[in-house]
Amino acid sequence: MCKIGIPRGMLFYDYYPLWAEFFEELGAKVVVSPKSNKEILNSGVLSCVDECCLPVKVFHGHVDYLKDKVDYIFIPKIISIRKMEYCCPKILGLPDMVKFSIEDLPPIIDTNINLRKNSYTSSKYKKAVYEAGKCVIKNSSKIRNAYKKAEESYQRYLYLLSKGVIPIEAIKMYNKTFVDLNYNSKKHDMSIMVVGHPYNIYDEYLNMNIISKLINKGIKVMTPEMVNKDEIIYYSAQLPKRMFWTYGRRIVGSAFSLIERDEVDGIIYLSSFGCGIDSILIDLIERKAKNKGIPFTLLTLDEQTGEAGIDTRVEAFIDMMKWRDKDDFNISTLR
Amino acid sequence: MILTFPHLGNVYIAGKAFLEELGQEVVPPPRCSSRTLEIGTKYSPENICLPFKVNIGNYIESIEKGADTILITGSCGPCRFGYYSVLEQNILWDLGYEVDMIVFDPISEGLDQLKEGLSKALNINSYKDVIKAGKLGWKLIQKADYLTQLSNEKRAYAIDSYEVDAIMEEYYKNIENTFGAEKMLKLMDEVEYSLKNIPIDKSKNPIRIGIVGEIYTIIEPFVNLEVEKKLGHMGVYVEKSLTPTKWVKHHVTSFPFGSKEENMKYQLAKPYLSTLVGGHGRETVGSAVYYAKQGFDGVIQLLPLNCMPEIVAKSILPQVQKDCNIPIMTLVLDEMTGEAGYLTRLEAFVDLLMRRREERKVGELLFGC
Asked: Which of A63, B101, B240, B280 fits a 20 to 30 Å CA distance from A97?
C-alpha cells in the first residue's frame, strides 16, 4: 500500500480533513507528522534559509521527519483559491523551497491549484484533483468519487468551525458524533480574539499553547476561522483597496467584523517574525482597534521566543483589561 | 497641484521631464540620504520591507519642499507592494499631511479607475500631447539607463575610475537645474560624450558580476549602498538584471505579452521554479541561470530584509549555484546594514572570483583540461 505523508504545518489546519479523506478513500495510507516539537523545529531551522518565517521553518522540519517514512509527500502548490486573489508568496513557492533545501526526498506531489481565473467547478480544478490522486490510483472515476467523499467530511469540519470549535479540536473530532458543541463558549466573562495565520494560532508548540491557556483562564477565544464567510467578505470590503490575499482577507475581515459588532473585549495578534503579509495586516487591524477603543496587543513568534515572556505579556494584557472594566468608567477626562 | 513621486534610481529624471512636458509642476524628492531613511523608519511599521520606509522618507521630504500630490504605481499581489498605497496614505494622514495620492493600478483592476487617475494627474487636454510626452519620457528612461550602464562599464576599464564618479556627480547636480525633456536630452548627450572620452585600458579583462534580486534594491543606489560603484572601483564589470528600461519594456511597451528577455528568463527558471511567486522571484532565478550561461564570473543577489518572493528565490539559488557552477552571494539589506561589513563581503567575494579564475587558468596549464 502506498504511503502518503502530510506535513503538519502551513495549510494543514485548513485542509487536513479534505486531504486525508481523499487519499484514504483512494486506498492510500496517510501518515501525518507528529505535533511540532523541539527536534522538528531544530531540523527545520537547519535545513531552511535563515530569512524565512517560523512556520515555514517548522514545515521544513515536518517534511524532514516524514522523508524516510513515506513513499510520497503531499505539498500542493496552492497559488490561488479564490478569484483574483493569491496566497502568500512563500506558500506559492513552498514545494520548490522544500525540494531544493532538503536532500534525499521521496517524490513530492506538488499539484498546482490556481483558481485565480477559474472556479471550483472548472475543468482545471478537476484536472488538479486528478493530478493529485493519480500517484495512488490511475482511475479517474474513483478519484472523482474519493474527492466527493472527502469534500463531505471537509464540509463537516467547516460546520464544526462555524459552531465555534477550535480547529485543533475539530481535526480530532470532525468524524464523530458529539453533543456539546459550544463547550468553548460556556461561562466566560471575557472574550478575546486570537488573530493571525492558522499555522501560527493552531500550532500549539509554536505559540506555546496560548489558546488553551486563555481558555483555562475562563476566557472565550475567537479565531478568524469561526467568523461567517459572508461577514468576512462584507467587512473586508470596507478597505479602501481590494485585499488580494485570501488569508489576509479572512484575517482582516474577521477582525473588522468582530470589532464593529462589538463582540470582543480584546485582540491578540499572533504573528511570526518576518511575515510580510502580517506587516500590512497588523497596521490595518491596530488602526481599527484603536479607533474603536479595543485593546490590542501583538505577540511576535520566532525560534527564540521564550514561554515565560509570552505568559507574562498575556497575563499583563488580561489584567489591564480587567482593571479597565473595574476602574475605568469610560468617561473621558476633561481637558 | 504640485506633484511628487518616490525615488527609484534614475527614473526621476524621466518622470520629472515627462510631467514638465505636460505643463505640471513637479517636485522630485531630494536624493535619498540617511535622513530620508531615518524619517521613514520612524513612521513606518516595524516589520515592513525597506522600500516602504524609504518611500515614506521621500514623501515627507518632498512635502516639506511643497508637494501636495503623490503619484505611485500599484499592483495587486501577491507581493505586499500592492498594499503600500493604503498604508502610506494612512501614515501621512496621521501625521497631518493633507496630501492626495493617485495610484495607477494595473488595467485588470478596471480601466475607468486608471483613466480617472491619469486625467487627474496629468491634466490631459489631448491624448496627442500625452503620447508625445510619453515618447519623450520613454526616450529619457532608456538614455538614463544607458548612461548608468555606460558608467558601470567605464569604471571597470578606466585607468582612473574616480574620473567616472566625478562626471556622474556633476551630471546628477545639473539635472536639478534642467527643465523640460529637450534640455535634459542635451545634457545627457554631453555626459555621454565626456564618459566616452575617459582614457581606458583595453587590455584589462575585468571580473564580470551579474546583479539579481528585488527590483527596488537593484535600481536605487542609496538602498544598495552603491554596489555598482563599489564593485566598479574594484575593477569589476557589473550588469544589472533589472533596470527601468527592462521594466517598461516588459510591462508597458510589449503589453500584454511581456518582453522577449523576461520571457526567456521565465524559461530558464522553469526547471527550478515553474510558477510565479510574486515580485521578481522567478526573474531572480532565471537571471542567475542567464548570467551563468553568459559566462559571468559570479552573481550577487540583493534583497531587502524579509522580502517574501526573494526568500523563495534564495532557497533555490544554492541549487543553481551547484548546477551552473557559478558562485552566488546573497546580500540582505535593511536600515541597520553597516557599510564596512558590506564592503568587506564584496571584497572577499571579488577576491574569491579572481582566485577562481586564476586557478582555472593554472589548471589548464598544468593538466591541459
From this structure: B240
- Cβ-defined contact of B318 to A90 (cutoff 8 Å): no
The complex scores an ipTM of 0.88
In CATH terms, B206-367 corresponds, of 3.90.1150.10, 3.40.50.720, 3.40.50.460, 3.40.50.11900, to 3.40.50.11900
Q: What is the CATH number of domain B2-125?
A: 3.40.50
State the SS3 of chain B.
CEEECCCCCCHHHHHHHHHHHCCCEECCCCCCCHHHHHHHHHHCCCCCCHHHHHHHHHHHHHHHCCCCEEEEECCCCCCHHHHHHHHHHHHHHHCCCCCEEEEECCHHHCHHHHHHHHHHHHCCCCHHHHHHHHHHHHHHHHHHHHHHHHHHHHHHHECCCHHHHHHHHHHHHHHHCCCCHHHHHHHHHHHHHHHHCCCECCCCCCEEEEEEECHHHHHCCCCCCCHHHHHHHCCEEEEECCCHHHHHHHHHHCCCCCCHHHHHHHHHHCCCCCCCCCCCHHHHHHHHHHHHHCCCCEEEEEEECCCHHHHHHHHHHHHHHHHHCCCEEEEEECCCCCHHHHHHHHHHHHHHHHHHHHHHHHHHHHHCC
- Candidates B43, B308, B310, partner chain A, best to mutate (most A CBs within 10 A): B308
Total-model pTM:
0.91
Nearest to B80 among A85, A274, A276 (CB): A276
B57-101 confidence digits (pLDDT tens): 999 999 999 999 999 988 887 888 889 999 999 999 999 998 989
Contacts of B306 in chain A (CB under 8 A): 51, 53, 274-276, 279
In chain A the domains, ranked by start, together with CATH numbers, are 3-162 (3.40.50.11890), 187-327 (3.40.50.11900)
